[in-house]
Amino acid sequence: MLRPTGFTDHPGLLMYPSRIVCLTEESTELLYLLGEEERIVGISAYTVRPPQAPEEKPVVSAFIHGSIRKILALKPDLVIGFSDIQADLARDLIRAGLEVWITNQRSLQEIFQSMFRLGCLVGQKKRAHQLISEWQEKLERIRSDCGPSRPRVFFQEWDEPIISGIRWVSELIEIAGGDDIFPESRDKAMARDRIRSKEEIIERDPEIILGSWCGKPMDREWVQRTLQYTTAVQKDRIFEVDPSIILQPGPALFQDGVDELTRIIQGRRTN
């Protein structure tokens, strides 16, 4: 009887991908946390977590674009990416004959689901479940420890046009004890649907402004000039948040991102 190459006679053995290219940081970080970093053969240029990854793994892509030639040369059996923004890159990789998995999570629940699925893909279902459970418990602990005061918070992802925060950021702001001034934007998956005018922001008068501008530092003077009539600017409650801990839908959110939001919103550290 003909048998597929690579399979064994053990009926319970599953075939896990052994050569994975990660087009975004969150899958790389999770694989390291799962102890499966040896499976990674290529990463994104924007990967900073964990810090050893850029030193150990070859860079094969940016975010929107990637080198098909470099990726093919690594002979991956799985390429993992994130969001509709990588649709064209995913299409080109599929046309090149590669297996591609693109996740499109926006909420915290969807992030946990995607991380669990990745754990299952590499045979680490139990460990992934353990990590997720620990992070969920941490979020509930932070939520329950928040005081009664809930400052109004504006999270800004970009300046021109002004783009408000993605759903998971809005949810984390709430967990950390704040009120997102644009809660109705949670259902807007696309950045273009979260464009806001300065007049709208001033009208809702945030008490805290958080900036995490994709790909460039927050311009504090721009914020002070554009939103000068808000309480946040008048009381100098303007904070920049590192995009690597708040704008990638993975472990960084729960290890550091929510702690930073809580420190700013509540004025204290978390454990």
Tell me the layout of helices and strands:
Blueprint: E1 20-22, H1 25-33, E2 40-44, H2 53-56, E3 59-61, H3 68-73, E4 78-82, H4 87-95, E5 100-103, H5 108-121, H6 125-145, E6 152-158, E7 162-164, H7 167-175, E8 179-180, E9 195-196, H8 198-204, E10 208-211, H9 220-226, H10 231-234, E11 238-240, H11 243-246, H12 251-266
Parallel strand pairs: 1-2, 1-4, 2-3, 4-5, 6-8, 6-10, 10-11
Antiparallel strand pairs: 6-7, 7-9
Report on the architecture of this protein.
- Helix 5 runs antiparallel to helix 6 and helix 6 runs parallel beside helix 12.
- This protein is globular.
- The longest helix has 21 residues.
- It has 271 residues and is an alpha/beta fold.
- Helices cover 41% and strands 15% of the residues.
- Strand 6 and strand 7 form a beta hairpin.
- It has 12 helices and 11 strands.
- The chain starts with 19 loop residues before the first strand and ends in a 5-residue tail after the last helix.
- It folds into 2 domains: 85 residues, 3-Layer(aba) Sandwich (Rossmann fold); 120 residues, Rossmann fold (3-Layer(aba) Sandwich).
- The N terminus is likely disordered.
- Strands 6, 7, 8, 9, 10 and 11 form a 6-stranded mixed β-sheet that branches.
